[in-house]
Design goal:
450 residues; mainly alpha; Serine Threonine Protein Phosphatase 5, Tetratricopeptide repeat; DNA polymerase, domain 1; 0% strand
Amino acid sequence: MVDVLRRDVKSLFLEREECDAGTVQQLRQALTVSPEQYRLLRETVQAMEQKLQQSSGAAAKRWHLKLGVASYFLGQTREAAQHLRQAEGALANFYLARALISLEEWEDALKALERAEKAGYTASQVRLLRAEVYRRQGKLKAAREILEELRDLSTHSGEYHYQLGKLYLEEGSREKAAAHFERAVELDPNHAAAWFELGFLNDLAGNDEEAIHCLERCIAQPPVHVGALYNLGVLYEDNHQYDRAIACFERLVRAFPTDERARLYLKDAVASRGSFVAEEQKPIPDKLQQVLDTPVTEFELSVRVRNCLEKMNIKTLGDLTRVTEAQLLASKNFGETSLKELRAIMESKGLRIGQALEEGAKYDPRFREAPPPQPPAVSEQEQALLRKPVSELGFSVRPRKAMAKLNIQTVGDLINYTAEQLLEVKNFGVTSLNEVRAKLAELGLKLRGD
């Protein structure tokens, strides 16, 4: 089978003179079969580069087109753009536009789309991509006008629903966005970008299993979504699937050998696997573990308590041993009555809220209670900055998950933690710490002790 695919990939570019939409479709199919096909495509690229050096005129333009398409599907966006700029025709300009969008070169992308449409590329596909450019430029009204004009595509175009979903997401309507992403994958089960967005939204909601499923569907489609590999690797780690996490990060390192971030994530995943094995070797009394693993949904809970636990991603009694009563009371609409309800449930099982924080390694050695925050003497403007939600700072997956575990909701909460305390959280490594420090530095702030 590999020999057949090797021959097919090479024949697409080396034995056929033309490169057209059919070439792209066959390339997608070959790459979907196995990640091994990416290595075969890289070999083909090297052969085409040699052909290009020996060519000129129209022949050289054809090799630039082939190299541009191949580089795009290998995730080498900048190289793809360089080749496609020197090619001609509808396909060259359409994929040049896609590469330029990834590079955030908006005006050049719009010019490439205009050339693609004039050269005969499918007008609706060009206009959908133009709507994406406008949306990413912040021109939401212009993007919506295009999508309104293309409303007839809603019955059969996954890309239309994807673009509409992204627009709703930009406007802050997650539920509507999710509905359109779901419709996009119904119409086009291979729509990688829609699968990524569904994975991201499920990740935010704490639906790890569904998020993993969506991201796995995303990375099965070429070109592989780099963000999906990072997010999926982190989710695998959070669910103790360390070998799969390592495979994701190794894939990133192979694709981007000079990317220090990918190497650090791989290093963290390998270390986490070793830590997990060591922890598994520590005996915990079976009866105690069974009690700690009891889902909170097994108890009769009031609406306010249930909403609070969902918001804080507390799923078991063990989770309740790793939060403080103060953290629970900080949740909206959660008061003393709700706290008494939870105390009674915990006492019925011989547990206390925050018990793991008090007794340490018997329950979970990775979490430590931070010292109570000391209110700083600051101006009203500075107080407003400290009340700013950390969700508005644009953190990547790992820092965001760590803050959720520690119930860090505002900038003020964050700066009351030391670097050492953050590093104690599972899967929060030096890469995440540097990101937090950089975001705080932009606000003129530091972690406690920095």
